[in-house]
Write a structure and sequence with these properties.
Layout (H helix, E strand, L loop, with lengths): L1 H14 L2 H4 L4 H8 L3 H34 L2
């Protein structure tokens, strides 16, 4: 069990680095560089909006799996 927890901690730590989150397409980067602050905030809001549904589905499936596994 300790080994499994250590694996999860290592995976989360490696994904939490700034280099892992600094990916992006070159068109979006060039577009964002030419925007003013209000438009850039809108672009970021749109990205979060589009990411909400897949992350919500993954979170729901994970929660249902965790709850089902916990009762056994």
């Amino acid at each position: 069990m300790k080994r499994l927890v250590a694996g999860y901690v290592l995976a989360v730590a490696s994904l939490a680095t700034s280099d892992a989150w600094a990916q992006g397409c070159s068109i979006c980067t060039k577009t964002a560089q030419n925007l003013d602050a209000k438009s850039a905030h809108g672009l970021n809001g749109g990205i979060i909006y589009l990411a909400f549904l897949p992350l919500g589905i993954i979170g729901t499936v994970t929660f249902l799996w965790w709850r089902g596994r916990r009762t056994v």
